[in-house]
Specification:
This protein is α/β, with parallel strands linked by helices. It has a domain of 217 residues: NAD(P)-binding Rossmann-like Domain (Rossmann fold, 3-Layer(aba) Sandwich), CATH 3.40.50. It contains 10 helices and 13 strands. A 7-stranded parallel sheet has the order 3-2-1-4-5-6-11, with helices on both faces. β5, α5 and β6 form a beta-alpha-beta unit. Bound molecules: nicotinamide-adenine-dinucleotide. The site of nicotinamide-adenine-dinucleotide has 29 residues, from α1, β2, α4, β5 and β7.
Length: 314
Amino acid sequence: MASVLVTGAAGFVGSHTVEALLAAGHHVTGIDNLRTGSEGNLGAVAGHPAWRFIRQDILDADDFRHAVRAAKPEIILHLAALVSLPESIADPRLHFDLNVRAVHIVVDAAAMAGVRRMIFASSAAVYGESDALPFDEESPTRPLNPYGEAKLAGESLVLGQGRARGSDAVCLRYFNVYGPRQPGDSPYSGVVSRFLDRLQAGRPPVIYGDGMQTRDFIHVRDVSRANAMAVGAPAPLTGVFNICSGRECAVGDLAALMMQEFMSPSAPVFEAARPGEARRSAGNGARAKAVLGFSAGIAMAAGLGELKGISIAY
Ligand SMILES: NC(=O)c1ccc[n+]([C@@H]2O[C@H](COP(=O)([O-])OP(=O)(O)OC[C@H]3O[C@@H](n4cnc5c(N)ncnc54)[C@H](O)[C@@H]3O)[C@@H](O)[C@H]2O)c1
């Protein structure tokens, strides 16, 4: 069992991942400044003997280095980021700090503390636009927006340092993650949680564009399982891995499915497409299956059905 430090531990993916790591028997230190995450997300692990939470901003590099030295993790899983694509366009300074500078700080602290494996939360946004679907890890990377560019830069910092130090460097390219605890009340939120938020309020979903754009949706518990598998895999482990379901789903079809679940009587509302968004996206998960033994297990209908009964940000 390993000692693992998770940045962004109180967030959507982070909190589920902490649960998965503790269930697998690891010792986990979580760091989060609660910018978008909350301690409430970590309620299920409160008091666990192998769990410790530190409220801290990783941009305070000295404090972060100190925390890493004190925790002595063998593995760092770096999840903290500014996740929203529109926000990355609206606030370039914050975007640079959280999506580029923070990666450098984490990688630097990992080197100083002799961490043996860095795992970085990358994104399908690195691929950008193409009709040659599904994307595999050798597909060209042509990001359409600053968020995707920053994730590529982050990958290069993590992989470059792994090469230089001879340590493991793993970049997990998550596709569109959905599930409990994903905030849905902002235009910056993920599409499933935005639709859910509207439907729970008795209002129709808002679709940006014509609804024909496609995404590969993967449940957050599958992503957390992939994270735990990347932590538990034997060394050496280095490279880039798609974490996806492999299914291409149109956003209009997603809206129809969710409206059916909620028996919503009204038609969806269409608004102008947002800049920087790819037309189509779907991943090929063969490499993650071959190397990590991971494949997504939660079908969309089951994942959405589970959300129906609960407030998504519980
Ligand atoms: N959600 C998705 O669909 C998706 C898709 C691809 C990749 N990702 C990546 O997965 C990771 C997790 O995303 P998420 O959806 O859980 O987002 P999230 O916003 O819920 O989680 C990010 C966490 O990082 C914390 N954080 C932000 N800045 C920080 C700082 N300076 N210091 C300490 N903590 C800080 C936030 O408070 C939050 O808890 C991100 O790296 C994101 O880019 C997410």
